Amino acid sequence: MHLTFHGGAGTVTGSKTLVEAGAARVLVDCGLFQGLKALRLQNRAQPPFDAHTLDAVVLTHAHIDHAGYLPALAKAGFHGKAWCTEGTADLCRVLLPDAGHLQEEDARYANKRGFSRHHPALPLYTREDAERALELLSPVGYGRSFEPVEGVSARFRRAGHIVGAARVELDAGGRRVVFSGDVGRPGDPIFLPPDPLEACDGIVVESTYGDRKHEVGDPADALARALRPVLDRGGVVMVPAFAVGRAQTLLHLIARLKADHRIADVPVFLDSPMAIDATQLYCKHVTDHRLDHDGCTAMCRAATYARTPDESKALNKRDGPMIILAGSGMATGGRIVHHLAHRGRDPNNAVLLVGYQAAGTRGQALLGGAEGVKIHGQFIPIKAERLRMDSLSAHADAGELLEWLRTLRTPPRKAWINHGEPAASDMLRVRIRDVLGWEAEVARPGQRVELD
Ligand SMILES: [Zn+2]
Questions:
Q1: How far is the CA of 242 from the centre of ligand 1 (A)?
Q2: In this model, does residue 118 exceed pLDDT 70?
Q3: Ligand 1 centroid, distance to 40 Cα (angstroms)
């Protein structure tokens, strides 16, 4: 069995690993590169393998950095099945058309303003392309064996990261390799902990937070501490939130804080049609998480939904205090960008950054203390307070990753570390070697390895 790391190696986006076993070729994850321009440009290149003859795609979860390239792969000629869990299929039906729509919008805007280097700027794929690609999705339940291609069998196990998130186990030629996908946290407020590992020969493990330890304590406390001063001074808290995962965790915690009178009962807006749809899917896939019916209902009712562009624009006329949650999670696009442009100059307001902010994103620039950000070709000074919360992460930190890996009683022959910035991946490699005594290597972009 051979693995080639075509994305999610040396970076946290663009996850794609080609698995070759005999004549079978399966792509595990099909993510879009995001962040730095040099990375994003890789989305435009032809896939480094023949998309026409690829047998199947297996998706660990629906986040765009793991599934967002599927429509582009289909455009490049892939016509096999894309296997995933039911939750992932439902979320892809929300996320992928939206990703296409966003790219069309960006291309249209770039052409109107003439700031693109490409004339005309073209979307990588359209909403229609994405809708066509959805027909490839082939959902299968957790724990059930399926055959993506003759000679390869596979299973999904819970990863506790978002609705539908899974790790995938692939068996071929007498060997088993496990792909961690994104690994959730044992004490997540919404999700069940990741399923323990079972014997395998090789494992590919993510390292988003491979060099960090999350804040300890109840994330509700940290959220209350972040929100209260801004709301008390009548400010607006803008939260760039991933539509799937973070947005729901925030809504759940805000509902709890309000019910306990720990923050004022201020208006909360969920300004993202995608996040609204995703929130409702949490109530459909109840076995994926810890929330009961009442918990789901409270989460769904924690915010007023701004679905249409007009409803979103109407928020500009409102005064604080209030909380606005909008995509995208790293402020690379979406409606949060308009709120930053509109309210970012006011030091009374705040931007709350709640998740991983990849290099090259506006979110990371804000965290790094940048005086402003470029929005649609224009520099916007940002005077709003920057707040940061790490405890809301839907990713295990280094210690939690090690604890999860430790559930594997017999060491694998080899562990490959992917999906991390180089320093994070290397730190996790060292800890896997020193603490667990496993042979471990950081996956390099384009590297082809053998599991013998
Ligand atoms: Zn993810």
A1: 10
A2: no
A3: 18
